[in-house]
Design a protein that fits this description.
This protein is mostly helical and 91 residues long. Helix content is 79%, strand content 0%. The protein has one domain (12-89). It is elongated. The model has no long low-confidence stretch (mean pLDDT 91).
């Protein structure tokens, strides 16, 4: 992840960026979990792809791509994203 590159040697900035990233990802996963129409689902999935690209998080990008190719409200996609977020948050 490029948080270290973005924050440099500033641990406080690193922590703030990580928190903002995790909050943004959680918000988009929540939107996916509540989306039932194609447009809302696609917007949330594209935002996840943008977050993944911004921070070079390939596993998140792959999951977001999976969301884009799935039907709105697909529970397995939301579950996998939630699991990824939980595991990533623990590191």
């Amino acid at each position: 992840m490029t948080l270290a590159a973005a924050a440099g040697d500033d641990p406080q900035l690193h922590a703030e960026l990580r928190t903002a990233f995790l909050d943004s990802v959680a918000r988009q996963i929540d939107l996916l979990s509540r989306s039932r129409c194609d447009a809302n689902w696609a917007v949330a999935a594209m935002r996840l792809k943008g977050l993944a690209a911004s921070f070079h998080v390939d596993p998140l990008d792959a999951l977001a791509e999976s969301a884009l190719t799935s039907a709105p409200g697909e529970p397995t996609v939301v579950r996998r994203l939630s699991q990824w977020l939980s595991e990533f948050s623990d590191h």
